[in-house]
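Protocol step 4 of 6: structure prediction from sequence.
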Amino acid sequence: MKRYLSIVIGILFIFFTYGCTNSDEVADELIEYHNSDWVTFKKMNDDMLGPFEAEFTILAMGKDVEGTKVLIEEEILPAQSVLVDYLERRNLEHKEVQELNQLMIEIERKTYKGLEKLATMIEEMDRQELEESSDILMEHEYELHKMLDDFHNEREELMGKYDVRWIEEYEEYGERINKMERKEDD
């Protein structure tokens, strides 16, 4: 009987130890993913697409249909492709962090496809048809916002599950960056 009890206690100890270790590993990977991969992705996004935001708005608002199409095809889509490639190259070990990254990949792919569709619509439709088709673009934008909300909610859920919290840091030029760290034990 003592031997049986010792075996059961030993097995429970192994499972408990593995569970804590695995939980720590997932938390560490989540923190590393956000503080390194996500921050890099966000900076790439800002650097590569940020400069085109104002130009895109000016062209679209000025109804320069051809200029908008050229900007999308020659500047925005190639940059969007680089962003998708960056996320796809992340080598993540834990399923939960992989799934979080996959959500962002799907968002970026959907953004790419939406921009591609917009360029095609510009090419195939006249100005009146484009204006009448704005509901299609609004629906696409709504879906992207919902997907992004899902990403943020999933990230927050993982942070709660693995006792991770937000901290604010400032880059050398003063820009605030939200990073993650483990919650301190009380």
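Step 5 (inspection) to follow. The chain has one domain: 22-182.
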